[in-house]
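During the practical work, I selected for study one protein's amino acid sequence and its backbone structure tokens, as given directly below:
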Amino acid sequence: MHKIRLMRALIFTLIFCVATAGAFASQNKKTVKLRLQSPAGNLCDVTVYFDNGITPIYNSHQDAEMVFNNVAGVPEIWALTQDSVPCSVLGAGDLSTSELVQFGYIAGVNGMYNLSAILLDNFDPTSIVQLEDRKLKVMVDLRQNFYQVQLDTNDAPTGRFYLHVSYPSAFTSTPSNCANNAGRIDITTDPTIKWNSIQLFNDSNTLVATDTSVQGAAVDFNNLSSGTYHVQFNFNQYTYINSFTLAGDYVITNITTPAGNIYTNEAVVFSANSTNANSYFWDFGDGTLIDGVENATQVYLEPGIYPVSLKCGNSFGCWATAQTTVTVLLAAGINELSSKDIKVFAQQKTITVNMNGTLANNAELKVYNLLGQLVYNKEIKAQQEVIDMGKQSSGYYLVSVINNGKENTKRVFITQ
């Protein structure tokens, strides 16, 4: 008869656990099994879980009431709801605050028993799980140890063992400023736990700061530069390390110039090698200003030495500048058309090109914007070409005329 009742209890508990896991479990569910083992090796488990929407009093939808086996020599352990209902499966809050769960037990025989916890890996590493023995005034960290204790058959079944679970520590961070020296890491801890120390290390594993005997007070690590850090929590023999990256608002920038020589009338690309930038302002030293692009295309019309500057910024108000100098050479094999051979002028959004000399069969007309993008290309058939730029935005454009093996490029400005 005892075996039949025990089997029924096990079947009921199994069915309840499966139903609860399928119907009520959320992604936040944390489960621990507290295990009582007799001197002869007989085991009994009780399941406690923490999840959203759990009520502290007995609820048949979230708790499984204990069915006692009454088998000689087999221990029994259960958890108590706040209204003192013994349960083999107990929902005990959502860990938004620290949780306290009372257990009851029956020792099958007198002797040394082991109390241990399994499934703790699903808890946040900063949640401390402890077993309290109020009779002997002992607290045991169940992540690190099991508890061995003398239990007798005439012990009071309740009022001795309690499970303490602290809520997870919360992290917030503030990115470092434009000077990269004012980042912050803030940690909030459960006041029921006294951490021996909380330490901050940088990516070189150098200790940056430490706070000792932390209980309830906020831990603030400040005046930090951006980078990779790890925080080490120390609670007695238990240690946990949390690694993360602290962002920064600062801007760093450099200019990558075109490889090789730069020649006149050649479209070349200058690149911004920047960190944390999303605004770009280029000055190419010949009057060409380009705004808003990370990689800018420039065409120099005259040989010479030009200073190039780049100013980069972001939405946080941080800025950085970079400068370099480039030498522009006259393109080999290209003869510039003289001003008497060609006239280029713009009126509003119309560009007019007048050819004053002999027109070759393969004469070509091209128009580029200041990003080096070709926006117009046509074979020249007449002494005068009129270009409609109505679909283009206002600004500077480069008009290139190729005729009789010679090239001439003029800069014009179109407007409404």
Notes: The chain has four domains: 2-165, 170-246, 252-329, 337-414. Confidence is low (pLDDT under 50) at residues 1-24.
